[in-house]
Amino acid sequence: MVDLRSDTATRPSAQMRATMAAAEVGDEQRFEDPQVNALCERVAELLGQDAAVFLPSGTMCNAIAFRLHLDRPGSEAILHRTSHPILYEGGQPAAYSAGMVRPLDSPDGTFTGDDVRAAVHDPTNRYAPRSRLVSVEQTANEPGGRLWPLERVDGVLAAAVEHGLRTHLDGARLFNAVVATGTPAERWASGFDSAWIDFSKGLGAPMGACLAGPVGFIEEAWRLKQMTGGALRQAGIVAAAALFALERNVDRLADDHARARTLADGLAQLPGIDIAPAEVETNIVRFGVADPVTWCAELAEHGVLMAPLNATQVRAVTHLDVDDDGIDAALVAAARIAG
Ligand SMILES: *Cc1c(COP(=O)(O)O)cnc(C)c1O
């Protein structure tokens, strides 16, 4: 089976497993796990932030950060309508963070400083929720792994400063952006009040994410980590995999991007597929077919898994467990069921 449903499909490699097995570990809650300590230091340094905390998942990074930033019930977060907290976190901004969301729209998941200025409520207007947070997703997942240009990020951060908004970077796939643009992680992340990266996506670790920010913010994040059952013990087993991933699996994301482009170019040749290959900027390919559920079921019969994204579109994601042969196999299977 060639599994292109998500880059979360990666399994730890033999070398990664060997590193995990050999890792010296301790109780991370007492800061006695050398792997977790090293990972948090490394991530803080990479993102240009003061401190970081290891968490089981990216969703918990968003949830804890939103709860800390939306510090009074009814405060509002400004973010794209396709962002992960709006679509895929079970209503977290409302249920866990007691917040409102202000969804912005655009085809590629990005927005501008002026979009933020237009969305901010007058703080003296007691009818409106209190604008409090702006959140950016790099790369933008649902729109197809799209890249935020640096000027747009800087524009949003400038607007946030003008209006006293907190800023949060959902960097689940930040390293895909780093590799695609050549701009270092620190340049993308250091201007935000909080930022995080995921190890269980393209980086290929089995689980885990790190949330970074100022020392006081990370201390508060630890309180919520405890409260939500995210405080772990010998987490170094998985932190060792994350350290391995940062060392070994970042530069190779360029291969995933090249394969996504090959897949998109090949799909563009087939009848019945609606795709814009130029919009494939990282490792996610989105395209239209008449009936995504049936199309994916037929593709699976030929040994290739892709995922229906909505009523009209299919999503395919390249990752380190799919090689050139896997992409060839996917194109052969798609050609068989086309037309
Ligand atoms: C996957 C993802 C998350 C959540 O990360 P998990 O580790 O799966 O909980 C958050 N934001 C974006 C953009 C993602 O793609």
Commentary on this structure:
It is a single chain. The chain is α/β, with parallel strands linked by helices and 339 residues long. It has two domains: 237 residues, Aspartate Aminotransferase, domain 2, CATH 3.40.640; 87 residues, Alpha-Beta Complex (Aspartate Aminotransferase, domain 1), CATH 3.90.1150. Helices cover 42% and strands 16% of the residues. α1 packs across α11 and α12 runs parallel beside α14. The longest helix is centred in the last third of the chain and has 16 residues. Bound molecules: pyridoxal-5'-phosphate.
- Uncertain segments: none
State the shape.
globular
Structural class: alpha/beta
Query: How many domain regions?
Result: 2
Number of DSSP E strands: 12
> How far apart lie the N and C ends?
23 Å
The Rg value, from CA coordinates, equals: 20 Å
| CATH topology-level fold name of the largest domain | Aspartate Aminotransferase, domain 2
Order of helices and strands: EHHEHEHHEHEHEHHEEHHHEHEEEH
**Strand share of the residues?**
15-25%
| Molecules bound to protein | pyridoxal-5'-phosphate
Helix percent band: 40-55%
Main sheet strand line-up = 2-8-7-6-5-3-4
The CATH top-level class label of the largest domain: Alpha Beta
Going by CATH, the architecture of the largest domain would be 3-Layer(aba) Sandwich
Q: Going by CATH, what is the homologous superfamily of the largest domain?
A: Type I PLP-dependent aspartate aminotransferase-like (Major domain)
What is the overall pLDDT average? 97
Number of helices: 14
Biggest sheet descriptor: 7 strands, mixed
